[in-house]
Amino acid sequence: MPKFDTPLTYGYLDSPLGPLLVAGDKDGLQLICFPTERNAALPTDEWQRDDAFFPDAFAQLSAYFTGELREFDLSLNPGGTAFQKSVWTALLEIPFGQTMSYGGLAAHIGRPKVSRAVGAANGANPLPIVVPCHRVIGADKSLTGFGGGIEIKQFLLDHEGVKGTQRLLI
C-alpha cells in the first residue's frame, strides 16, 4: 500500500467494476482502488469519508464508464519517485482505445533498456483508469499483470474497443 504524507479524504464510487475507493486531498487525487485489488489501500482512522469531496472525479469516472468520456481532466497528486512519475506522465499520452508495450513505453520515455522498471512503475500506479496503466500490454499483445486483476484489465480494454489482446495461459 502506498504511504501518504497527510490524512486523505475518500469516497466510494459505484462502478461496473464494483465500488471504487477514490481518495486524495485539496491538491488532487492520490488514489483509486478496485475492490479486487491485491494490495488495496484501506482508509485509516485518520482519513475522512466524504463522498461529495470529488464531484469532478466521480462525474468523469461515471462518464468514462457510460462511454461519454475518453480523456480525463482532473487534478492529480500521486506520490511516487521521479522515475515513477515520468512513467505515469507517459501513460497519460496513450490514447483511449490504444495500447503500448512495456518496451515501447520505456523507449517513449527515452529509456529503452528499462522495460522491467517501467513495468514496476506501471504496477505501482496509484490512479488506474485515470492514468491508464491498463493500456500497457506485453509485446506479444498478452495481458500481463494488473493490480485489479486481469479480468478488470480485460474489461477496461474491451470497454475502450481494443481488439487483439490475449490472456496469458499460466
What does this structure look like?
The chain has 170 residues and is α/β, with parallel strands linked by helices. It has two domains: 9-65, 2-Layer Sandwich (Double Stranded RNA Binding Domain); 82-167, Orthogonal Bundle (Arc Repressor Mutant, subunit A). 28% of the residues lie in helices and 16% in strands. The strands form three sheets. Strands 3-2-1-4 form a four-stranded mixed beta sheet, covered by helices on one side. β7, α5 and β8 form a beta-alpha-beta unit.
Q: What topology emerges from the helices and strands here?
A:
Blueprint: E1 9-13, E2 20-25, E3 28-33, E4 48-49, H1 55-65, H2 82-91, E5 100-101, H3 102-108, H4 115-123, E6 136-137, E7 142-143, H5 150-159, E8 166-167
Parallel strand pairs: 1-4, 5-6, 7-8
Antiparallel strand pairs: 1-2, 2-3
In percent terms, what proportion of residues is strand? 15-25%
Which structural class do you get from the secondary structure elements?
alpha/beta
Pick out the low-confidence regions. Answer: none
Could you name the CATH homologous superfamily of the largest domain? Winged helix-like DNA-binding domain superfamily/Winged helix DNA-binding domain
How are the strands of the biggest sheet laid out side by side? 3-2-1-4
